[in-house]
Amino acid sequence: MSKWMMSGLVACACIFGVYLLLTGLPDKEEQAKEGTAFTVPERAVDAATSEQIYQSMCISCHGAELQGAIGPELAHIGSSLTKEQLFKTIKNGRRGMPSFEKRLSEDELITVTTWLASHQ
After folding, report:
1. Residues sharing a CB contact under 8 Å with residue 79, sequence separation 6 or more, in sequence order
2. Options 3.40.50.720, 3.30.450.40, 1.10.760.10, 3.40.50.200; CATH of 47-117
3. Where are the domains of the chain?
4. Are 54 and 46 within 8 A, CB to CB?
5. Which of 2, 46, 56, 110 has the most C-beta neighbours closer than 10 Å?
6. Which residues belong to any copy of the Cytochrome c domain (predicted)?
7. Residue-wise pLDDT tens digits, 31-83
């Protein structure tokens, strides 16, 4: 009788393990990052400074008119991504895009993010 109970418990544990694997639970690092979400502060768009940063850092991949080249089009990026998503992408990089965390200050990151988010 105890053999049947033990095998039943092992079977339940295995089924539960397979369930956890199939549902794709987030990693602990992702959960920690979500808990400390960064909110981009509201500020007026500084087009002159943003365009200067864009010219020196982004134009080679995203084009002179935000039309896209190697990188995606940014002309209407504000309608598809939130400010926080834009900030995170610029800061950390994504796929083929390099990280700008060490190349730009946080203030410059916020300035460019606010400018790009205004492109609806």
Report:
1. 119, 120
2. 1.10.760.10
3. 2-26, 47-117
4. no
5. 110
6. 45-120
7. 555 555 678 888 888 999 999 999 999 999 899 998 988 888 988 988 898 99
d(CA 63, CA 55) in angstroms, rounded, equals 9
Sign of CA dihedral 58, 64, 55, 86: negative
| Euclidean distance between CA atoms 106 and 100, whole angstroms | 10
If one counts every other C-beta atom within 10 angstroms of the C-beta of residue 116, the result is 24
**Strand pairing partners for 94?**
97
Q: Is 12 exposed, middle or buried (0-12, 13-18, 19+ CB in 10 A)?
A: exposed
Distance CA 74, CA 24 (A): 32
Average pLDDT, the chain: 85
CA pair distance 49, 62, nearest whole angstrom = 17
Query: What separation in angstroms does the CA of 120 have from each of 33, 89, 116?
Result: 28, 18, 9
